[in-house]
Each structure stands twice: as C-alpha cells, then as structure tokens.
C-alpha cells in the first residue's frame, strides 16, 4: 500500500520536485547521431539506462538523494576514520614498545655501572694499602680543662692553662680523630 | 562533395571524442568499483568478518611468558650493596636452524641484514658460519661452538650470564631465528670477600641456600609476573598484542646491622693477628651494647660470597663452639653478687692450688697465698679463688645464671648452621664439672653467645636479643624496622656496675698490651684447652671480651684465636681487641673517657 502511495505522489508534481527529468526528456535527441557505431551506442545506452534506473529509483524514494549521499559519505568517513585510528594505534604501540625497550636497556646499563662502581669501591682499601697508606692510628685530644678565654684588656699577659696529660681529664676534650680510613 | 567530406570529418572527430569520454568513464567506474570493493573487503575483514580468521591465527601466535621478579638486595648498615641481582642473558642456539643458515652477502641493498666479518664475506655456510660470527662476541672457540651447533634439535644453551652489552652486539649479527637470548638474573657480590660465609649464596634457580641469602630468602624473593602476547615469526613480541599481564614484584631489600667499614677493618685486624701469633684461625664479634645489633662478625676464613666454599661453610663465629675459659668468671661473679652470696669487697687468702671435694684446682700461674678481694680474684683470674668464693652458690644458681646469660641458648639470629653450644643440667654435673663451670669450663658456647653475655653486663644487666637485620625495604620504598624481642633483665644495674668495675681492673692489668689511648676498657680474658686434631685436649683457644668505653659502654668486642703463640688470651686476642677498639672509637667519634675514680680494691 505504501509503495502505491509514493508512486501517486511522484506523478502529482513532477516538475516541481524533480526538475532533472526535463533534461532527460531531451536525451533521446542527443542519441540520434548519424554514422554512430551501434555497438558503442548499445553499451552507453545500457549504462545510461542503468544510471537512469538508479536515479529514478532514488527519485522514487521519499528521502532526498542528498540525504542518501550524506549518509553514505558519513559511513565512508567513519570507515576510513576507524581504519586510520587502528593504524595509528598500532603505530603508537610500536613506539611504546621501542621506548620500553630503551628503558630496559638503560636500566640494565645503570645496574651494570652501579655494580662496577661497587666493585671499584670494594677494591679501594686494598689499593690504598698497596700505595702505602695505613689506617689512622692513635687519638689526638685537646684538653680544654682550665681553659679561659684571653681578656682583651690583658692581651700582653696571656694566662697559660696548666698543662695536663691529654687523658687526665678529657671530659670536655675534643677528639680530633676522624672516621679513619676504611 | 566537400560539404559531405567536412560533415563526415566533423562527424568522425565528434565520434572519437565521445568514444574517449565513454571509455574513460567506463574505466573510472571500473576502478572506482575495484577500490570500493577493496575498501569494503578491508573493512569487512578488519571490522566484521576478520574475527574468526584472526582468532585462529592469533591463537597460534599467542604465547605466555613469565616475567621474572628480581631478587632483593642485601645492604650493610651504611647502604653499601653486598648482594644484588643483575639482568643477564642465556644465549641459546638452534642447531636445526644453524644447519640451514646461508649467509647473505653484503651489498648496498642487503647491508641491513647481511653477514660478514671485518668487512669480508664468511666463505662458509651452516653452523660454521654461525660459529664464526658468534664466537668472538662470546669469547668462545669458533670450532667448539661450530661443533655445538652441528647437532640435531633446536635448543642448545651456548652460554649463561651474558651481559646485556654482549647480547646487544649479538643482536646486530642478524642471526635471528638461529640464535636467541633468554633473560635471566645473576647474583652479584661486589664486596665478595667481605663476610662471604655470612652472606652465603644462591643456587642455579636463584634460591638462597646459605647464609643471609638462605635466612632471609622469603623476604629477598619476589613474585614472578606473566604476560600473554602474540609473537612474530622470529619469536619477537608483536607490539600491541599483549592481552593479559601481571607485573612481577621484586624482592625486598634487606639492610644488615653489619657496618661494612668495621667488618673490613676487623677482618684485617684478625688477619694481622693470625699472622703475628701464628694462630690456626681467629674470629671476632662486635656488638652494640644498647641495641644488641651485631656490627661486625668476622673470621679469617675469607670465603667469597656466592662461592661453593661460602655455601658449604657457615661462618666460624656460629659453628665454632669452645669453652670460654676465664671469661665465664664474669657470669659466676654476676650470679654471686645478684644472689647476695658474695660482695665485691669480700676478702680471701687465695693459694695457687686447692684440693676440694676430692678434686684439685690450680691457677694458671704459681703464686704464694694472695690477699685478694672478689674484685682481685676476678682481676687475677684465679680459679682457686672462684671455687673458694662459691661455697654458698648452689649448682642450680650456677646453671640458672649461665642460662640467663644465654649460654646453651639459641642466639635468635637464625643463622644457618648456628650451634647453641652445650650446657648440661646440674644433675648431670660430676664433682669436678660443678666447680669448673665457675671458671668457664665444662660447657661450650660460641662467640656470638659469649658476646651477648658480656653485653648484658655492659647494658646495666639487661640482656637484649641480638639482631643482624636492621630494616627491610619493599619495592615501594616502605621501610620496616625489624622488631626485636623484649629485653630481659638478668642482674640489677648496681650488680652490673660492680662487675664492670671488676672487669675494668682486669683491663688495667693488661694496659701495656691491650689498651686504647683515651678510653677506659672493661674486659676479661680467657684461655681454654679444646680438642685438637687427634681428639685429645691438645689445642688452645684464647679469647678476650671487652667493653669500650667502660664509663659509657658503646661496644662489646670478642676476639677468639685458636692455638696462638703466646697462649694467654690477654697477650694474643687482647692486642687485636685494642686495635679494633681504637678503630671503633675513631669511626664513631666516641668522646674520650673520664678518669676512673671508683675502683673497687683488689687486695686487702
């Protein structure tokens, strides 16, 4: 029922809705050419008929052709877009893989260098000994027991603190020793 | 006529134009159709219909791979790396692929994947060609490698523990498909000779089998991860094809209480002492009095960490048990003072030998009867004096205080191969043993237990649990302090102070051979006969355990030597103790001691 209804509507106002039909009406005049090859005319005629068929079919639809073209273009664009995104994704994946590989290599290099540094550090004491270095021995202390700061008014007569052995009362002594060689 | 010709010519020209346009249109339409069909097919395969086809192909390419977790590091107290895992590769060859290998001659077009040595063609093919390319990179003999690759099968391990640098140079040989590399881990010990037996080692699978590696294997071992991905024709991962993955969790870092610097110096001092006194072996333990942390644990065996020797032989300090000799008198004195059966000022006339309960006891030196106090008996290390003073010190008290000080008890360190020593119950003691235990004979201990016993006195009578592990750090950097057991009070602070006072008098007696300038020392020497090679009591163990500084105890150092020339601990192990003590004071910048003013009289 619905197809019949569409057919009726297309006949009611052909000039207004489908102005292209006017040009098609002139096409038979163009096809009448003297001396033309029949075979060529037959092919083009067939193609023309098919094209006309498509156009007529499209014209027979309630949806305008422009909508159909837009929808089709949109679909094609989506298709191409998804293909592009997929390609891009794979490309990025390759790049990520490459970066990951570089990170792994750098990590390995850092590990190896650190290990080499540790080994050299471990060999330091032995090398120092071979060079004649010896660990620090003995402790030097400065005894501040009885120390008084020099009065600026009596600069000419400084008071010398009583001399005591370094370990006699080293409560306030300062050890001058460091950590010593390892 | 001419009009006809013109019309005919014009008609022919129009015809050819129409024909060209029609042909072009037809071709364009055909090409467009082909393009649309191709695009449609591509879209169909990629987006709709490809799934079933791709699924089968994907399934054949998809492989699971284990992601190995790295074993944690072992660090010293200062953060110095003692053990760590490094990424290495196992180079694997395929004899089958090597047999089919045909080198590609180098040209402008093939220069990215061709094969040559020093700019010259190989001249051979098959395994020989592969071996010629590969052998120089791995430092192997080309002929032996060629023979290795000439067999059948597709999996031959060529070399293990290959460095990443070498692996990368192998990658550039364009031998994919013939030679591959598998990621592995190698345990590295940068300070190999430093406490090798204590660190221990791992087996081929990376599992700890000795020493700290074994003891802390649970913490050091990580959790492997996995990933499932698609691989290419050469076995390489196709990027973006990873479907499932679980990242590995690396093992935790274990930081020891051992100070690498002190350990190194103690090892050196022991080696020097062993050479000087021509001892069979020497060992030493350094402990922090306040915390119970072991600062150094050394011996003269010097086994490299990770070596077979290090895996097979635990450190001497945990395996060697010995009678502590006169050092044991400090425990007896502590017990007698704590039980209030004696006081430091009690007066005795002490001969050099004594017959008691059918047994004869002698001092190390002959002397006339001496008027000594308890402090004097300790200072002169008199066996006879100890027996005389212990008339009210029951067998059960003797056993209880030895046990409370940790003799015959596990140290709690958990070291593999550690002996808890030997202490029998008082019911098993005979008439002699019940008295010899007073001066450190009749029971056995190891150097770690003995150190903690002296450290208890230094720590005002409180016995700490000893520890070797300071902290454990996970991969996220979260550090956990190892929880120590609750300290136990063994003797009163006042009693500990009195024993310290007596030990300081002992150290003063040896100030000419074992003193540290600027610092007061409290110590006790010991000498005991131990079984020799023939099983008889033919060997001597000389030991010295000292607290430094005596006025503000920081460290306890125990030095033990076997069969030193000089016999007595004070003359052999004592100087080594002084050397170590001096280094400790310098290293930790300990303020010098105040003068001694409260010495308990040793004579009357």
UniProtKB/TrEMBL annotation, chain A:
Ranges for region Disordered: 1-43, 130-182
Compositionally biased spans, kind Polar residues: 166-176
Protein name: Cell division protein FtsL
Swiss-Prot/TrEMBL keywords: Coiled coil, Membrane, Transmembrane, Transmembrane helix
Organism: Bombiscardovia coagulans
Transmembrane segments: 65-85
Biased composition (Basic and acidic residues): 12-27
Keyword Protein biosynthesis: no
Entry coiled-coil feature ranges: 103-130
UniProtKB/TrEMBL annotation, chain B:
Transmembrane keyword on record: yes
Pfam families listed in its UniProt record: PBP_dimer, Transpeptidase
GO molecular function: penicillin binding
GO BP term (any one): cell wall organization
Entry-linked InterPro entries: Beta-lactam/transpept, Beta-lactam/transpept-like, PBP_dimer, PBP_dimer_sf, PCN-bd_Tpept
Domain Penicillin-binding protein transpeptidase: 283-580
Superkingdom per UniProt: Bacteria
Residue ranges of the TM segments: 20-44
Primary localization: membrane
GO cellular component labels: plasma membrane
UniProt domain Penicillin-binding protein dimerisation: residue ranges: 68-238
UniProt keywords, alphabetically: Membrane, Transmembrane, Transmembrane helix
Compartments where found: Membrane
Family label: Belongs to the transpeptidase family.
Protein's name in the database: Peptidoglycan synthetase, penicillin-binding protein 3
Organism classification: Bacteria, Bacillati, Actinomycetota, Actinomycetes, Bifidobacteriales
């Amino acid at each position: 029922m619905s197809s019949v209804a569409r057919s009726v509507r297309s006949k009611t106002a052909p000039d207004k809705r489908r102005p292209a039909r006017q040009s098609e009406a002139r096409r038979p005049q163009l096809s009448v050419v003297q001396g033309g090859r029949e075979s060529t005319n037959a092919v083009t005629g067939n193609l023309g008929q098919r094209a006309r068929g498509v156009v007529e079919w499209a014209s027979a639809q309630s949806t305008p052709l422009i909508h159909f073209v837009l929808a089709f273009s949109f679909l094609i664009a989506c298709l191409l877009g998804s293909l592009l995104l997929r390609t891009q994704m794979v490309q990025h994946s390759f790049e990520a893989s490459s970066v990951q590989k570089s990170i792994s290599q750098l990590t390995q290099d850092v590990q190896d260098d650190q290990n080499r540094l540790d080994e050299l550090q471990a060999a330091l004491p032995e090398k120092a000994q071979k060079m004649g270095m010896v660990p620090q021995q003995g402790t030097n202390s400065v005894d501040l027991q009885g120390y008084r700061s020099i009065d600026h008014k009596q600069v000419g007569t400084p008071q010398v603190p009583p001399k005591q052995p370094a370990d006699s009362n080293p409560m306030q002594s300062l050890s001058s020793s460091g950590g010593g060689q390892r | 006529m001419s009009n006809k010709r013109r019309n005919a010519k014009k008609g022919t020209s129009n015809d050819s134009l129409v024909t060209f346009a029609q042909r072009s249109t037809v071709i364009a339409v055909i090409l467009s159709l082909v393009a649309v069909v191709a695009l449609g097919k591509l879209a169909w395969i990629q987006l709709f219909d490809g799934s079933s086809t791709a699924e089968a192909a994907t399934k054949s390419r998809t492989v699971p791979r284990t992601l190995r977790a790295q074993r944690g590091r072992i660090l010293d107290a200062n953060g110095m790396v003692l053990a760590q895992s490094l990424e290495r590769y196992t180079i694997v060859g395929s004899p089958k692929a090597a047999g089919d290998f045909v080198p590609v001659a180098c040209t402008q077009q093939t220069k990215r994947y061709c094969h040559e040595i020093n700019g010259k063609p190989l001249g051979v093919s098959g395994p020989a060609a592969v071996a010629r390319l590969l052998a120089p990179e791995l430092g192997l003999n080309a002929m032996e490698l060629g023979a290795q690759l000439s067999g059948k099968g597709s999996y031959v391990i060529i070399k293990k523990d290959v460095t990443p640098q070498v692996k990368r140079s192998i990658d550039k040989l364009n031998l994919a498909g013939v030679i591959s590399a598998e990621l592995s881990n190698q345990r590295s010990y940068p300070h190999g000779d430093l406490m090798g037996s204590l660190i221990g080692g791992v087996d081929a699978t990376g599992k700890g089998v000795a020493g700290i590696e074994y003891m802390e294997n649970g913490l050091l071992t990580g959790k492997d991860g996995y990933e499932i991905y698609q691989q290419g024709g050469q076995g390489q991962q196709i990027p973006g094809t990873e479907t499932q993955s679980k990242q590995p969790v690396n093992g935790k870092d274990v930081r020891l209480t051992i100070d690498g610097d002190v350990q190194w110096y103690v090892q050196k001092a022991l080696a020097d002492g062993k050479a000087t006194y021509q001892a069979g072996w020497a060992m030493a333990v350094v402990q922090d009095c306040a915390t119970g942390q072991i600062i150094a644990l050394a011996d003269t065996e010097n086994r490299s960490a990770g070596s077979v020797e290090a895996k097979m032989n635990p450190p001497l300090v945990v395996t060697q048990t010995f009678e502590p000799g006169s050092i044991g008198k400090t425990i007896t004195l502590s017990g007698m003072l704590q039980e209030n059966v004696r006081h430091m000022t009690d007066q005795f006339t002490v001969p050099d030998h004594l017959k008691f309960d059918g047994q004869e006891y002698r001092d190390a030196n002959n002397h006339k009867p001496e008027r000594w106090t308890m402090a004097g008996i300790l200072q002169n290390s008199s066996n006879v004096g100890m027996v005389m003073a212990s008339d009210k010190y029951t067998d059960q008290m003797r056993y209880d205080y030895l046990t409370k000080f940790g003799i015959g008890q596990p140290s709690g360190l958990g070291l593999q191969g550690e002996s808890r020593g030997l202490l029998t119950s008082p019911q098993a003691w005979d008439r002699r043993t019940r008295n010899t235990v007073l001066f450190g004979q009749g029971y056995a201990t190891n150097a770690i237990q003995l150190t903690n016993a002296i450290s208890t006195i230094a720590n005002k009578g409180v016995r700490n649990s000893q520890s070797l592990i300071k902290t454990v750090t996970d991969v996220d950097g979260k550090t956990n302090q190892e929880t120590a057991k609750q300290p136990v009070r063994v003797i009163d602070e006042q009693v500990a102070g009195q024993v310290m006072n007596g030990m300081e008098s002992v150290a003063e007696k040896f100030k000419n051979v074992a003193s540290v300038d600027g610092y007061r020392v409290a110590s006790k020497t010991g000498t005991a006969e131990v079984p020799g090679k023939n099983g008889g009591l033919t060997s001597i163990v000389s030991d010295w355990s000292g607290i430094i500084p005596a006025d503000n105890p920081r460290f306890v150092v125990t030095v033990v030597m076997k069969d030193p020339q000089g016999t007595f601990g004070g003359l052999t192990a004592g100087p080594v103790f002084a050397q170590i003590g001096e280094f400790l004071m310098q290293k930790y910048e300990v303020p010098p001691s105040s003068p001694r003013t409260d010495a308990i009289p040793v004579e009357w």
